Automatic annotation (TrEMBL):
This is Carbohydrate ABC transporter substrate-binding protein (CUT1 family). The keyword Transport applies. InterPro entries: Bact_solute-bd_prot1, SBP. Its main location: periplasm.
Amino acid sequence: MKALSLVSIAAVSGLVAMQVQAAEITISCGAVGAELQLCQAGVARWEKQSGHSVEVVSTPNSATERLSLYQQILNARSSDIDVFQIDVVWPGMLAPHLVDLQQYLPQDATDDFFEAIVANNTVDGRLVAMPWFTDAGVLYYRQDLLDEYGLEVPTTWQALTAASQTVQAGEREKGNGGFWGYVFQGRAYEGLTVNALEWIASYPEGGTIVNDQGDITVNNPQAVEALSRAAGWIGDISPQGVLNYTEEEARGVFQSGNALFMRNWPYAWDLVQSEQSDIRDRVGVVALPAGGNDGQSAAVLGGWNLAVSRYSEHPELAAELVAFLTSPGEQKRRAIEGAYNPTLPALYQDEEVLAAVPFFGTLYDTFTSAVPRPSAVTGDKYPRVSNAFFNAVHEVLSGNTGAEQGLANLQSELERIKRRRW
């Protein structure tokens, strides 16, 4: 058994130091929504089956803060955490610190998974992470309120704005002064990169920040229009506080009955449909709106994977835990209990899974054709690219700069990053 002390390595700005008691192996899990509880339940099942013990470490909800913590731990070559839950955009930058799971798993271990995610997790021929759950942004809406006001589910951002204004005005006239039309993730962090990329990519020729050839594509008239529209939401159909919302703050407002629409990940479905929810059985889920009649719905690819640290003292045992947690049985349990998207295509045809989360079937194409962030082409420079992007967008949303000037400034910053090679 190894003694763990993460207090020293967790001294990251804004984070609470973590203390972990002795455990045979350790896994870091997220705590957004029901993530932590589902991870703990899966680990407990493996402990019972294997006879080994595992310590579960909760990490920051913000992906940006979590990456900083991980990099500090890994750069220190610490053996304190054996299994890391890593974002879909991190395999390339963290690969030098992760083991090749092909050394420990059966040759056919990845055969039944989405090929694109396996490819994403394979760096220089090394399988550095196993797909755990995938993600794509979706639009949650109050079906009861749309029905009451005689409105259709919006298919464009323009229609969403108009519907939000109508229902918001009506609900406030009825006495709910805290009701808003639309909530999303507007804090300056990775979640805003995702939201803003969805806005921009939904417009024809809106670009994807950086294209597959490494060209900067974000500074264009369609992107200006997308960000200008989003900036117009602040104080109109979205609260000023949305500028500091992550996933859970947005869910809190929506689930308490104080918003008509919400952009979030599929995990929120299980929570808004729970017995504790104020809006249970009054919610629908559809693809995100398009940027005008000539645009298209654009959901950014999300998802998380499980990787084993090169500095683990028990890499084989850690790989066994990874194999168990990403197995069909565990992924099915997580889909039914928490609405986490499986990384196994077969589970999208499973009757029990579809009964629990119906939109897994209706939005299957959304999940399989999601827009990737430019992490592959920008490599280890991606965190700087994303930081530059979400900070520029946040300045526009905050009203500190116009969209046109903000994107021009962003272009200059991205060119400086690019000159250092990505």
